[in-house]
């Protein structure tokens, strides 16, 4: 088809402009294969689907990407949307291309219950994919950019969902990768769909003043160009309008009207050598009036995304202020395309990453801390903090530069130096003066950390620090160094939250429920869950709703059902529960889990709707709290209770004596009773609370074992647990 050939020629022309040695035949073959694979498929716009992968390939070519990445861009949807497999791509093209396509495909395959879970897990997958090959994310960003360009064909609900996702994940990723052209367009398109009226209002006002602004800035550029030529400096100078989204942020962050924003455009000066950047800066400050405290040297201290430039703001002869950005052509390329400008694979070295791989240290850092967060909201919040555009640059006493999120403290700085320095931090000096650890660092501060080898971090630091690195290292310290304390602390936090909600300890915190919840949250044991709550990586509010679901299943008692008007007396044999209800036959009988009645206990039945009769001990607190006594009916233990086992829970309070657990275990064994579960915790007063669930056949057995445990050295108290 004609559109196919014209698109293909346009793509090849774009690639050859920066890579004369491109394999035209391979690009052509891949293009034809992609078109055939998507034949018969259409986008929401009604256009042939092949237009989308071609658009993605063109975006990748605009980023000067290598042939393998561009071909993978053409194929990025074929494994998911057609019958073509990974093996087909590997056989017909290369393993490198197949791996890139596989990486992009896997980012789309994860589905979770909530949008927040789905978003967080997708982000984790992207981080892992980036660590393997950054080109996977460059393809994904290009894919998302074209989808945003064609978002008008989606439903309003989808438009809002996709635009929010871009602002929360994709634009920050593009920023951290230094891909400013991609970032700016993604942000502008997101604003267009999230705030259409505001977006259009800003666009209209920009257009209304464009001619005047362009005339003003061209006049400044001519004056400055003449000054540089007098000094024999060859430079290209041009104006750069601010993005619509950046104008929007400034308006709403600083509560300004559009007319109050003075720096709608910046002036860029591009030179050939780094030394000329500083020469140009000196000329700018002589020719114009520099605004104090606006100079920033990102050449000496590059941003984490590799951005380098000199920034200064001047007052021009027309009375207006302008920001001037001065950089070399190499720096300019990096500022526009970021990591994509340097991620080149030369023939014969396809597995060797460029020297700029060292600039991706932040990826390893994020991979480190993302493992410690099971909660989606907390993980997303940390991601947003870490990728925030605002940052401060501070110095060590030796002159090393550290970049930190805006609002960081000396503790953040200490952990950026080394985790050992952070863990032993006891104080700090900023610019030679002692400051509190809560002090907010500012760009240019010289920070010295005071340490004590016998000190450790405080849990309160988690409320103070700003950087995700510091939060992760603090939590790791507590996780490793204070596991026992964390287990006790985590359990205590859970108990307090349960009590605050009006439940008793044994009513909601059943061990089998907690163990199932721990497993669902990917913990290998209940103690691991307690420890995670104790050191802060898992919140109590993640556990409580799940416990309430179990509580509802086991304890919920519905409205009373009508009791039979008349029944003949029946002398029943006891059912599986061992309980007989005189006068009622063929009804389901269950022993209540809240009080676990056993033969010998005085019992009563509770009529439920559709769930039979629930049998409780008469002294059960749930029974005592029932207002409508008509729900209660007489029940009794049957006569034939041989070979029936029942569960009963004991709680023991003891001194923390060595060998005590072995002693009571021996007592239980001598009583020929089976232990179902066994759980201990240390109290603040250094006593120990032990909860044991035993299998018994009668109340006499429990009386015997209680008496023997009471006589065991170290016992303070022992009693059967009631609801």
TrEMBL record:
<dbReference type="InterPro" id="IPR004811">
    <property type="entry name" value="RelA/Spo_fam"/>
</dbReference>
<feature type="domain" description="HD">
    <location>
        <begin position="49"/>
        <end position="148"/>
    </location>
</feature>
<dbReference type="InterPro" id="IPR045865">
    <property type="entry name" value="ACT-like_dom_sf"/>
</dbReference>
<feature type="domain" description="TGS">
    <location>
        <begin position="390"/>
        <end position="451"/>
    </location>
</feature>
<dbReference type="Pfam" id="PF13291">
    <property type="entry name" value="ACT_4"/>
</dbReference>
<feature type="domain" description="ACT">
    <location>
        <begin position="649"/>
        <end position="723"/>
    </location>
</feature>
<dbReference type="GO" id="GO:0008728">
    <property type="term" value="F:GTP diphosphokinase activity"/>
</dbReference>
<dbReference type="InterPro" id="IPR012675">
    <property type="entry name" value="Beta-grasp_dom_sf"/>
</dbReference>
<dbReference type="GO" id="GO:0005886">
    <property type="term" value="C:plasma membrane"/>
</dbReference>
<comment type="similarity">
    <text>Belongs to the relA/spoT family.</text>
</comment>
<dbReference type="GO" id="GO:0015970">
    <property type="term" value="P:guanosine tetraphosphate biosynthetic process"/>
</dbReference>
<dbReference type="Pfam" id="PF02824">
    <property type="entry name" value="TGS"/>
</dbReference>
<protein>
    <recommendedName>
        <fullName>GTP diphosphokinase</fullName>
        <ecNumber>2.7.6.5</ecNumber>
    </recommendedName>
</protein>
<dbReference type="GO" id="GO:0016787">
    <property type="term" value="F:hydrolase activity"/>
</dbReference>
<dbReference type="GO" id="GO:0016301">
    <property type="term" value="F:kinase activity"/>
</dbReference>
<keyword id="KW-0418">Kinase</keyword>
<comment type="pathway">
    <text>Purine metabolism; ppGpp biosynthesis; ppGpp from GTP: step 1/2.</text>
</comment>
<dbReference type="InterPro" id="IPR045600">
    <property type="entry name" value="RelA/SpoT_AH_RIS"/>
</dbReference>
<dbReference type="InterPro" id="IPR043519">
    <property type="entry name" value="NT_sf"/>
</dbReference>
<dbReference type="Pfam" id="PF19296">
    <property type="entry name" value="RelA_AH_RIS"/>
</dbReference>
<dbReference type="Pfam" id="PF04607">
    <property type="entry name" value="RelA_SpoT"/>
</dbReference>
<dbReference type="InterPro" id="IPR003607">
    <property type="entry name" value="HD/PDEase_dom"/>
</dbReference>
<dbReference type="InterPro" id="IPR007685">
    <property type="entry name" value="RelA_SpoT"/>
</dbReference>
<dbReference type="InterPro" id="IPR012676">
    <property type="entry name" value="TGS-like"/>
</dbReference>
<keyword id="KW-0808">Transferase</keyword>
<dbReference type="InterPro" id="IPR033655">
    <property type="entry name" value="TGS_RelA/SpoT"/>
</dbReference>
<comment type="function">
    <text>In eubacteria ppGpp (guanosine 3'-diphosphate 5'-diphosphate) is a mediator of the stringent response that coordinates a variety of cellular activities in response to changes in nutritional abundance.</text>
</comment>
<keyword id="KW-0378">Hydrolase</keyword>
<dbReference type="InterPro" id="IPR006674">
    <property type="entry name" value="HD_domain"/>
</dbReference>
<dbReference type="InterPro" id="IPR002912">
    <property type="entry name" value="ACT_dom"/>
</dbReference>
<dbReference type="InterPro" id="IPR004095">
    <property type="entry name" value="TGS"/>
</dbReference>
<dbReference type="Pfam" id="PF13328">
    <property type="entry name" value="HD_4"/>
</dbReference>
């Amino acid at each position: 088809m004609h559109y196919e050939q014209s698109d293909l020629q346009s793509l090849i022309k774009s690639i050859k402009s920066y890579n004369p040695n491109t394999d035209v035949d391979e690009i052509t073959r891949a293009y034809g294969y992609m078109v055939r694979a998507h034949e018969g498929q259409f986008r929401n716009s009604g256009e042939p689907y092949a237009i989308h992968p071609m658009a993605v390939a063109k975006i990748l070519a605009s980023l000067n990407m290598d042939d393998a990445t561009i071909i993978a861009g053409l194929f990025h949807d074929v494994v998911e949307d057609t019958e073509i497999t990974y093996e087909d791509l590997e056989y017909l093209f290369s393993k490198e291309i197949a791996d890139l396509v596989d990486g992009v495909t896997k980012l789309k395959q994860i589905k979770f219950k909530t949008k927040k879970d789905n978003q967080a897990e997708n982000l984790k997958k992207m981080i892992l994919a980036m660590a393997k090959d950054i080109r996977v994310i460059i393809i994904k960003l290009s894919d998302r950019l074209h989808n945003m360009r064609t978002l008008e064909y989606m439903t309003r609900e989808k438009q809002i969902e996709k635009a929010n996702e871009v602002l929360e994940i994709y634009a920050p990723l593009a920023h951290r990768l230094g891909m400013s052209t991609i970032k700016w367009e993604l942000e502008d398109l997101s604003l267009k769909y999230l705030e259409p009226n505001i977006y259009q209002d800003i666009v209209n006002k920009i257009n209304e003043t464009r001619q005047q602004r362009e005339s003003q800035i061209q006049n400044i550029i001519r004056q400055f160009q003449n000054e540089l030529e007098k000094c024999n400096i060859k430079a290209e100078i041009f104006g750069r309008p601010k993005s619509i989204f950046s104008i929007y942020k400034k308006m709403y962050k600083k509560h300004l009207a559009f007319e109050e924003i003075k720096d709608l455009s910046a002036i860029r000066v591009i030179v050939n050598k780094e030394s000329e950047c500083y020469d140009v800066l000196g000329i700018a400050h002589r020719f114009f009036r520099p605004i104090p405290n606006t100079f920033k040297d990102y050449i000496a201290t590059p941003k984490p995304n590799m951005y380098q430039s000199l920034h200064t703001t001047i007052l021009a002869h027309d009375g207006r202020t302008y920001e001037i950005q001065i950089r070399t052509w190499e720096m300019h390329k990096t500022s526009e395309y970021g990591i994509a400008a340097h991620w080149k694979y030369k023939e014969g070295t396809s597995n060797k990453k460029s020297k700029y791989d060292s600039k991706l240290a932040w990826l390893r850092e994020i991979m480190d801390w993302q493992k410690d967060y099971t909660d989606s909201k907390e993980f997303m919040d940390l991601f947003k903090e870490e990728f925030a555009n605002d940052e401060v640059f501070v110095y060590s006493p030796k002159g090393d530069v550290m970049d930190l999120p805006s609002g960081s403290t000396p503790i953040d700085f200490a952990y950026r130096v080394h985790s050992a320095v952070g863990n032993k931090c006891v104080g700090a000096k900023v610019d030679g003066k002692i400051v509190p650890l809560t002090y907010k660092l500012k760009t240019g501060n010289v920070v010295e950390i005071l340490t004590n080898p016998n000190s450790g971090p405080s849990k309160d630091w988690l409320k103070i620090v700003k950087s995700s690195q510091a939060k992760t290292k603090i939590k790791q310290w507590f996780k490793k160094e204070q596991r026992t304390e964390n287990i006790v602390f985590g359990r205590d936090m859970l108990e307090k939250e349960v009590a605050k909600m009006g439940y008793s300890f044994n009513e909601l915190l059943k061990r089998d429920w907690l163990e199932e919840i721990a497993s669902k949250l990917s913990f290998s044991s209940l103690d691991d869950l307690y420890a995670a709550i104790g050191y802060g990586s898992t919140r109590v509010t993640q556990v409580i709703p799940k416990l309430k679901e179990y509580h509802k299943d086991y304890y919920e008692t519905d409205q009373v059902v009508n009791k039979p008007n008349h029944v003949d007396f029946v002398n029943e044999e006891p059912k599986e529960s061992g309980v007989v209800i005189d006068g009622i036959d063929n009804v389901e009988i269950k022993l209540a889990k809240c009080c676990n009645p056993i033969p010998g206990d005085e019992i009563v039945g509770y009529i439920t709707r559709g769930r039979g009769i629930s049998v409780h001990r008469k002294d059960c607190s749930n029974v005592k709290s029932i207002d409508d006594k008509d729900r209660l009916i007489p029940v009794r233990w049957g006569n034939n209770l041989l070979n029936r086992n029942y569960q009963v829970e004991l709680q023991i309070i003891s001194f923390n004596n060595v060998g005590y657990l072995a002693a009571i275990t021996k007592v239980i064994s001598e009583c020929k009773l089976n232990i179902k579960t066994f759980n201990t915790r240390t109290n603040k007063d250094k006593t120990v609370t032990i909860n044991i669930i035993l299998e018994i056949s009668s109340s006499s057995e429990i009386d015997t074992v209680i008496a023997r445990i009471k006589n065991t050295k170290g016992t303070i108290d022992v009693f059967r647990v009631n609801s």
